[in-house]
Amino acid sequence: METAGTTVSGSEIGVFSSSGARRNIYLPDKGDQAMRDRIPERICGAGSLIYLKKETVNSQANVDIHSQNMNAEPQNVLDYRGDNTIFVVWNFKNDQEIGAVFQRICALVINLNNSGETRFPDSGATCVMGIGYEAWLRLGLPAPLPKELTNFVPIAGKKHTAVATRGDLHFHIKGSSSSICYDMAATLAQMLDPVAVSVEEVHGFRYWDGRSILGFVDGTENPKGEKRAFFGLIGDDDPAYKGGSYLFVQKYVHDLKAFKALPVGEQEKVFGRSKENDVEMSDEQKPSNSHIALTNVGDDLKIIRDNLPFGNMSSNEMGTYFIAYMSTFSTVKKMLDNMFIGLPEGNYDRLLDFSTPKTGTLFFVPSASFLKNIASGAPALEVIASAADVTGEVGSRPSSGDGSLLIGSLKK
Question: Is 218 among the catalytic positions?
Fold first, then answer.
């Protein structure tokens, strides 16, 4: 190809605009850095998208297009605050145009957080949105997908099963005041109701000094300080999605009557720690099937739990909404395998004899920068994936029919 009188070797790539029109963009080889540096702004302008299809390669096959997403602002997944919470799961209706509504939802989430911070700066009022695998595909969001985003698969042990349930969008709404949470949830529902159905809504509350409804302190193993970001946010392992998080949720319903029938000493063996002062048992005292023994998978494998109890006296539905943010889902998967299958197999978590999971869903929480880009009609990521992805999985993973990621005009 001729560029400014100079012959340059490289690749021809096809870029699809939001109208479906195609234009060819020349991707120079790695050596032509000045021209390569202009590629993101040439390709990622408003109304164009990030899906590339390789046409020809005249030289190096493994051409890198570096991420521009390195300083993405995360959603507020690391905050400790919020004694009141509403957890809501929405599923999109079939045969509905959802792209425009999703774009407005992204803008609304940003607006709700800005408004909460401005009006109630000390309340911890936040709304975090997660996106399920099927919704990601249906919306035509960027491919390759976050590395571990997929549908959660049930984990069946000999006695207990971690069930898998569908979830397209998950909203984690929290604040010091239940009024703030209610208003946020109501505003989201008003916008989503025409195109989606709310399939789960749980109102959580802080119980005394952070205890579950079973009476034991919850979240003792949570990372503190700077470690929260290390364990809670994606880093350089998946640079296109840096600043995002994996989100896994389960709604557990407890058999309080059966659990409270146990002497306190037996209850403590179920958890592996003291009930009154939250002191962990020694390894010699702690049963191998205690909750702590099976879920503590190492100091280098931590998650951010933001669990809260819920309760309904009339229906006798008392439980814990387990919610975990993490940089890698494999950590939670290991915990769940230990709990339900057992370590060794058959040595399952005894807490499951008193706690039954009714739901189980994996979501991806993109960065706030990602949401802002969608809200403005810009490409979701300020990044083009590597040329290896251009020639490989990118073309096979989107579900939008023509393989394009029409971020400026999202597919239904």
Answer: yes
